[in-house]
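Project outcomes to date are best conveyed with an example. Our students and postdoctoral researchers have been running inverse folding experiments weekly, and each run begins with a structure described purely in tokens. The record below, which covers 302 residues, was selected by the lab manager from last quarter's runs and is presented without edits.
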């Protein structure tokens, strides 16, 4: 029973000066996604798919891909405008990708088994990968099923600017019932976490609100469902054609309502941290060093 880890690494990192996907973070020069791959292999994953831009291919293979291929099966998928469904052509002046729904869809030809999805520039924690690996094994042979690792909002805030989070609602059984993509979240001067997207005074959010950090589990059914809805999104006149994006929390929320997609929320003791702003780098480096010092990781991940 094969399980795959898809890593979205094609993002432009507009709020971070430099290529954060390949920036050195660990005490021995490790890049952040190496920790996710190490944890995934330990949890039993046996295939990795990198979604990148084709222009990144050579440096990406030299930086990490060729080394990872010595430990686990590796494939590449390219998130480019020519991989959009229905032969859709991006409008003149469009420079950014169409979002995480398209990023995952770009891998449809190389994934035929249950798979997990993560960002390249986040640290998710060992427990998260173990929980997801177990879940993907339960999803073998099934179709309309999904899962998500949830984190507490208070543990995902940057001290250096606003963040975007998929704020989640669950039912009494702990299953996901709603994901609200929430923008411009930060901790206010009064210590309260607030959403500043539509209210300059900020709308208070709960410290222990569950949020999506784009750690999802899907069956191959995802590709059919995503292609249909991305095609409709691209053709819709709604939104700015130069900047609009279709993101995974929005797709999952739509599928839960349209086809009653069951989404299992995986509870773990995992700690998340990541890179949004250049100023986040020092804190991430310190956290990774502490994990090495504590013995959670060997001196070298190779």
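After processing, the design step wrote out the following sequence:
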């Amino acid at each position: 029973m094969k399980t795959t880890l898809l890593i979205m690494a094609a993002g432009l990192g507009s709020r971070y000066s430099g290529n954060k996907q390949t920036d050195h973070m660990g005490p021995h020069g490790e890049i952040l996604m190496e920790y996710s791959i190490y944890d995934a292999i330990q949890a039993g994953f046996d295939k990795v798919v990198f979604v990148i831009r084709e222009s990144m291919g050579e440096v990406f293979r030299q930086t990490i891909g060729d080394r990872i291929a010595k430990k686990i099966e590796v494939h590449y998928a390219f998130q480019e405008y020519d991989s959009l469904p229905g032969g859709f052509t991006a409008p003149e002046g469009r420079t950014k990708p169409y979002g995480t729904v398209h990023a995952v869809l770009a891998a449809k030809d190389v994934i035929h088994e249950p798979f997990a999805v993560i960002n390249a520039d986040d640290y998710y924690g060992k427990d998260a990968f173990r929980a997801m690996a177990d879940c993907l094994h339960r999803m073998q042979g099934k179709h309309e099923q999904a899962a998500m690792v949830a984190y507490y909002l208070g543990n995902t805030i940057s001290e250096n600017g606003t963040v975007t989070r998929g704020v989640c609602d669950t039912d009494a059984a702990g299953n996901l019932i709603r994901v609200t993509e929430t923008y411009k979240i930060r901790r206010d001067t009064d210590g309260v976490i607030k959403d500043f997207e539509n209210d300059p005074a900020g709308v208070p959010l709960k410290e222990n609100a569950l949020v999506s950090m784009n750690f999802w589990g899907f069956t191959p059914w995802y590709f059919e469902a995503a292609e249909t809805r991305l095609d409709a999104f691209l053709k819709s006149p709604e939104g700015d054609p130069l900047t609009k994006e279709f993101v995974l929390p929005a797709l999952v929320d739509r599928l839960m309502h349209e086809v009653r997609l069951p989404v299992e929320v995986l509870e773990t003791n995992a700690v998340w941290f990541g890179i949004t702003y250049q100023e986040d780098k020092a804190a991430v480096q310190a956290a990774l060093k502490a994990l090495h010092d504590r013995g959670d990781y060997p001196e070298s991940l190779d």
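The longest helix spans residues 221-235. The two ends are 25 Å apart (CA to CA). The training component of this project remains on track.
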